[in-house]
Structure formats: structure tokens, C-alpha cells
Amino acid sequence: MKKKRIYVWAPIIFLICFIAYYYSFSKNYAARQAEVAARVQAQKDLKAQEDAKKTQAAIDQAVAEAAKNKAAHLARVEQEQKQRDDMDNAKLDRDKAEQESQKLERQVEKLTKDVASEKDDIARVQDQEKRSDQDFAFLKQYIVAAQANQGRLADVIAKIEAADAAVARNAAIAEAAKKNQ
């Protein structure tokens, strides 16, 4: 029977030890589980906070990057518009310069024709002046010759008058001689 007691008492002792151990374990188990749960929750909260900070930092960085990209885009658009405006202004200036050049070329051609026409007019006037000078010189010579002829004609007229007077005197003398005779 001794052996039978061992079969009863050994499991009871083991049961008592187990209950004592289980009681101390279960008493601390809830606290440990709460502590583990609190630690896990704290880690989750810490990770959530870190994730929230990282997310907020990423959002801030994305907003800053978007603002930077928007500013760069606006600057690029403004620069492209300025380049387009500069090109348009350059084209307008080029067209205006070309029109001005063509206008000046037409004026040069017109003035060249006018100069040629005026040169022809000047040559014609100089030719007329030369002819007028020649005519004037001829008229001077003619006047000198006419004055000389006038003097000679006056001498001839005087001689004719003297001759007519002599003829009239001779006729009067002859008639007086005829009357006297």
C-alpha cells in the first residue's frame, strides 16, 4: 500500500506545486500580459507617431517640391513667353527694317533717276548757256560790225548826199547856164 500512496500523494504534491506555480504565474501573468500589451501598444504608438512624422515630412517635402516645381514651371513658362515675344519682336523689327530698306532703295533709285535727269537738265542748260554765250559773242561782233558798217554807211550816205548836192549844184549851174545863155 505504500506503493499505492505514492500514486496518490505524488500527483497531489505535483498538483499543489503546480497550483502554487500557476497561481504565482497567473497573478503575474495578467500584469506581464498587460505590460507586454502596453509595450506592444507603446511600440505601435511610437511607430505610428514615427510613421505620422515621416508621412507629414513626406507631405511637407512633396508640398515644397510641388511649390518649387510650380515656381520652376511658371518661370519656364514666363521665359518661354518672353522668348516668343522677343522672337516676335525680332521678326517685326526685321520686317520693319526690310521695309525701311526697300523704301530707302526705292528712294535711292528715284534720287538716282532724279540726279540723272537733273544732270541732263544741267547739261542742257549749260549747252544753252554756251549757245547763248556764242550768240552773245556773235551779236557783239555783229554789233561792232554793224556799228562799223553804220559809220561806213554814214560816210557813204554823206558821200551820196555830197554827190547829190554836187549833182544838184551842177544841175543848177547847168540850168542857170542854160537860162543865161
Question: Overview of this structure, please?
Answer:
This protein is an all-alpha fold and 181 residues long. 99% of the residues lie in helices and 0% in strands. It has one helix and no strands. The protein has one helix spanning 2-180. The radius of gyration is 74 Å and the shape is rod-shaped. It starts with a helix and ends with a helix. 0% of the residues are buried.
Quantity of strands, as a count: 0
- Total DSSP helices: 1
Calculate the mean pLDDT score and round it.
87
Assign the structural class, choosing from mainly alpha, mainly beta, alpha/beta, alpha+beta, or little secondary structure.
Answer: mainly alpha
Strand content range:
under 5%
Helix content: over 70%
Give the distance, in angstroms, between the N- and C-terminal Cα atoms.
251 Å
Quickly list its features.
181 residues, mainly alpha
Itemize the secondary structure elements and their pairings.
Blueprint lengths: L1 H179 L1
Summarize the structure.
With 181 residues, the chain is mainly α. It has 1 helix and no strands. 99% of the residues lie in helices and 0% in strands.
